[in-house]
Automatic annotation (TrEMBL):
Organism: Bradyrhizobium agreste
Domain of life assignment: Bacteria
Segments traversing the membrane: none
PANTHER family the record matches: DIHYDROOROTASE-RELATED, IMIDAZOLONEPROPIONASE AND RELATED AMIDOHYDROLASES
Domain Amidohydrolase-related: 54-351
Pfam families membership: Amidohydro_1
InterPro entries with a match to the protein in the record: Amidohydro-rel, Deacetylase_Atu3266-like, Metal-dep_hydrolase_composite, Metal_Hydrolase
Record's protein name: Amidohydrolase/deacetylase family metallohydrolase
Origin organism lineage: Bacteria, Pseudomonadati, Pseudomonadota, Alphaproteobacteria, Hyphomicrobiales
Length: 379
């Protein structure tokens, strides 16, 4: 099959193959077709000189809210992904079983970027989240809809990758961990992983971790006090280490209130890296402090993570959490998504959710996006 597109001469960093080399990447039929030096172009092949850039597998943002127009916190997926180099946006619980059909028809299916979803166990998902209204959808147990959540998740396995629940003082109020237990029943019923949000106690960080199974995701994993994974002495809580040992995954989910430099410094100093880096982008954090996926990745680069590890946390690791191994890789036969980035040098101001600022000397910038083997942005 002749190549549709060749990205020529970029520095290819693909952690799924432990690859870091200057080479070409070719696409055909919507998939990655070949990687190698001086790949031959056919008469109809589009060739792009990307020698100034780094080529990675298409970035996966494991925590977004992109039910634009259907929920007050939703942002436009295509606009966000163009600017942030994201080719797969994973919506985490914006919709529940009562409104997933609208999300699918009006947002996901027309989208040029891939949108996958964790389905909320609450009937209408995250329905009361705006500048003026803050209603924790898990406070009211009458909104828990496990029967229909299982039915909708089962009927939409092409898009639904897991079950979402939010617990904590702001999300579940006096219901505590009960919504988490209900969501776990649904996840067990449909054989899918669960993603759990955590905010202020109750329940405690430790209580939530104790319930999670191998392959389940704890998002907001590097959140500030209270409910932080680090001790006051700067060590990692033993319950956190035990959870990772049994296969629980730790996701950043930066957002408006869920990432602190102090926590991250302690965790990284102990060698505890996040499994996945995600933005938790929504209407209340897109103008700061999260901004986008590449800014969130940049914070970890400036805090000492190596670039291939940062890329892995937004590509292959996220694909494995989704159980979609065809994503997050440039292996031939994989989905034909790629992101072009550059790492700029300078003085850059970064902020966390508690107001601390960090001056970093590097910034990851999105320079181009390939989706389904076609150059998508910028023109």
């Amino acid at each position: 099959m002749p190549f549709d597109l060749i990205l020529r001469g970029g520095r290819v960093i693909d952690p799924s193959q432990k690859l870091d080399a200057v080479t070409d990447v070719a696409f055909a039929g919507g998939k990655v077709a070949a990687i190698g030096s001086a790949l031959k172009a056919d008469p109809g092949t589009k060739v792009r000189d990307v020698s100034q850039f780094i080529v990675t597998p298409g970035l996966i943002d494991l925590h977004t809210h992109v039910y634009w127009g259907g929920t007050s916190l939703g942002i436009d997926a295509e606009e966000f992904c163009r600017l942030s180099g994201v080719t797969t946006a994973v919506d985490t619980g914006s919709a529940g079983p009562g409104n997933f059909a609208g999300f699918r028809k009006h947002v996901i299916e027309p989208s040029q970027v891939r949108i996958l979803a964790y389905l909320h166990v609450s009937h209408a998902g995250i329905f009361g989240f705006s500048h003026r209204i803050m209603v924790g959808e898990s406070e009211e147990l009458r909104l828990m809809n496990p029967v229909e959540a299982a039915e909708v998740a089962d009927a939409n396995r092409d898009l639904v990758v897991g079950i979402k629940v939010r617990v904590g003082l702001h999300s579940s109020g006096t219901s505590g961990a009960v919504p988490l237990d209900i969501a776990l029943e649904v996840a067990n019923e449909v054989g899918m992983p669960l993603m759990a949000h955590i905010d202020h106690p109750p329940p405690s960080y430790e209580d939530v971790l104790a319930r999670l199974r191998p392959g389940d995701v704890l998002t907001h994993a590097f959140r500030p006090f209270p409910n932080t994974p680090a001790t006051a002495q700067g060590t990692v809580k033993k319950e956190v280490l035990e959870a990772r040992e049994r296969g629980v995954l730790f996701d950043i989910g930066h957002g408006k209130g869920s990432f602190a430099f102090k926590t991250a410094r302690a965790m990284l100093a102990n060698g505890f890296y996040p499994d996945t880096i995600s933005s938790d982008i929504h209407q209340l954090c897109i103008d700061g402090p999260a901004y986008d996926q590449v800014t969130t990745m940049s914070k970890f680069l400036c805090m000492g993570m190596e670039l291939p590890d940062v890329i892995a946390a937004s590509t292959v690791n996220a694909a494995m959490a989704l159980r979609r191994p065809e994503l997050g890789s440039l292996k031939p036969g994989s989905v034909g998504d790629a992101t072009l980035i550059s790492v700029r040098q300078g003085q850059f101001d970064y902020e966390d959710v508690v107001g601390e600022h960090l001056t970093g000397n590097r910034k990851i910038v999105s320079e181009g996006v390939v989706i389904g083997g076609r150059w998508w942005h910028p023109n």
